[in-house]
Amino acid sequence: MVSSSHEAMHRIFQDHPGLFSRVSETLGIDFSPPTSVTVLPNDLTEISPVERRVDTLLRFDTEDDGSFLLAIESQSAKDPHKPASWAYYASYLLTKYRLQPVLLVVCQDRATAKWAARPVRFGPRQWPLLTLCPLVAGPHNMPVITDPAEIRKDLALATLSAITHAKDPDIGAILKAMTNVLRDTPHTITDPIIELIARGLGKHPAAEMWRNLVAVDLSFYKSSLSQELRAEGETRRAAEDILDVFDARGIDVPDAVRTRITDCTDPETLRHWHRRAVTAPTADAIFADEQP
Exposed, middle or buried, 262 (CB in 10 Å: 0-12/13-18/19+)? Predict the structure, then answer.
């Protein structure tokens, strides 16, 4: 199943195609900035039962280097079958478009990045037929950007940095610096970045950190994530109010009751339970006449 984190690591290049030039420069490889970029279909399926899809496929047209194809893959773990798939992508793209392909693999952990960066040779030891050499962007080579001035200079690169450093000990400083800059950035730019980082952090602990920062530091933004966070905050506080009433009255709250209260996401139900909690003889009495 494709994860949100997986999506963000390659879709950022669709939203900010010029980011590849800065990433390649960071990796020590000189690609000319594109004069135009075209998002191409990512379906590489042949007329056969085998379906193959590259995560993102872009065509770059440049003044100095001509045209080339950029295939971007998000990779969350080592997969011994992937290099063969990547080699297939490269051969297929060259055959279909008659343009030279480049493969960029984006990772969030160093072990996977190190694995993905290895040149892979296909063919007999005595005479390899081809060698696969992906470009790899990950926590091992993407900059840790915590300087607001650097973030303002290149928001797209700073966003990718935050995503690729999801497991980094400095992720808190990275995310805090991002919210400091986004607070003064137009909504049209800020909202997509908020969503990209939220998706990119996936289920890592940093995701909850980002949600809390957005809720507090960017509470006035109207992105779907911000609205979701504010709604979550309101229901969480309402649930805590109910538990505070029981605590003040010295009423024991069984785990099952506590879980039902804290899992509730309906504000009206929580208000109803809060009113009952003031006089209920036991904690579970607030659910009287209700189906569990």
Answer: middle
